[in-house]
Amino acid sequence: MQKPKKPVDEAQRLEALRALSILDTLPEERFDRLTRLAKRLFGVPIALVSLVDDHRQWFKSRQGLEASETPRDISFCGHAVLGDDIFIVPDAREDERFFDNPLVADDPHIRFYAGCPLTLPGGSRPGTLCLIDRQPRQLTPDDLDLLRDLAHMVEEELAAVQLATMDDLTHLSNRRGFQALGLHALQLCRRVERSAALLYFDLDGFKAINDRFGHAEGDRALNVFAQLLQQTFRNSDVLGRLGGDEFAVLATDSTAADLHQALSRLDAAVERQNIADARGYDLRYSVGAVDFDPAQHPDIDALTAAADTLMYAQKQAKHKVARAG
User: Fold this and answer.
1) Which of 136, 81, 139 is nearest to 109 (CA)?
2) Long-range CB contacts (within 8 A, 24+) of 206-210
3) pTM of the entire structure?
4) Within its chain, how far is the Cα of 124 from the centroid?
5) In a structure prediction context, what are the per-residue pLDDT tens digits for the chain, which is 325 residues long?
C-alpha cells in the first residue's frame, strides 16, 4: 500500500481548512444535496465530500457510507488533493498503490474511485468530491466534465463558509476563524507538549484617524497594519482581526520571550511605513503578550482575554505618560 504524500503547501492548506470551522460539524443540506445528486447521476453506491485533515479524512457529507472518517494514511482522497484535476482509480485491485489497502480488502470494498480536488479562493485544496463503486468502471469525457461541475458547486458552498470566517477588509481570519484555528493549534500544543504564545494588538489613536481623515483612510490604516503583521510573522502563525482595530497573533512552538525579536521587526516595519506614507498620522499600537499555560488557559478565549488585559494595561500606561507630559 502506498501512503499519500503531503502537499507542498500542507501548512497553509491545513490552516485554510481549519479556518473554515467546518470539521466535526453536523450534516448540512447544501452539501448533502450535492452528494445525493452525484450518487444518482453516476449510479455509484457511495458519494462523499471528504476533507483531508492532518491525520484523517473526515466526511462533511456522505451518501452510502456509515463511517464519518478514516485514517489519512489509507485514504484515496489524500492522493487526490496532490493534483489539480480528477484522480481516478479504475480498479483498485489492479493498482499497485491500493490493491492491499484496507478500504479495498475490507469494507467498503473499494474498486473504483474518482476524486475531484476542491479548491478554495486562496488556492488551497482542503479535500475532494469523490465517487466510489464496488465494481471497476471508467468515466467518459462527459462524465468527467459533470464531476468537475458538481465539484465546483461544492467549492462555491465552501467559499460561502470561508467568507463567514474571513475579515472582508483585511482578508485575515475574523474572530470566528481565529478561534477555530486557535482551538486546533492549542490542542496540538497540548498533545505534543509544545509551547505557544499569543500577542494581542490594538491600534493607538485609531478613532482620531477616522474622525480627522475619514473612514476610508481608517480602513487603509487597518489594511496596512494587517499587511505588516503578515510580513513580520511566520506562515505557520495564526493571524486574525478580532474586530475594529484589534488584531491577534498566535505563535506555536514559541514563547512570549521568543516573540520579542518579531515585535522589534514589526516596530521597525511600522516606522518605515510611517516615514514612507507621511499621511498626516503615524501608525502606533499597544500589545499584550501571554504564554499559553494549559492550567490557566482552558481555551483560546481565555488566552486571548489574558493578552487583552496586558494590552490594555500598556495602553493605559501610555495615556498616563502622555497626560503627564
Assistant:
1) 136
2) 206/244, 206/245, 208/281, 209/281
3) 0.69
4) 9
5) 899 999 999 988 998 898 888 999 999 999 999 999 999 999 999 999 999 999 999 999 999 999 999 999 999 999 999 999 999 999 999 999 999 999 999 999 999 999 999 999 889 999 999 999 999 999 999 999 999 999 999 999 999 888 888 898 998 989 988 988 888 788 878 887 889 999 999 999 999 999 999 999 999 999 999 999 999 998 778 899 999 999 999 998 899 888 999 999 999 999 999 999 888 999 999 999 999 999 999 999 999 999 999 999 999 988 777 777 6
Rounded alpha-carbon distances, angstroms, from residue 187 to 76, 92, 111, 194:
26, 36, 36, 10
> Is residue 117 within 8 Å of residue 84, measured between CB atoms?
yes
Cell numbers placing 294: 494549559
Q: Where are the alpha helices (DSSP H) in the chain?
A: 10-19, 29-42, 77-80, 102-105, 141-163, 175-192, 206-213, 215-232, 259-277, 300-324
N residues, the chain: 325
**DSSP class of residue 50?**
E
What sign does the CA torsion over 59, 62, 68, 70 have? negative
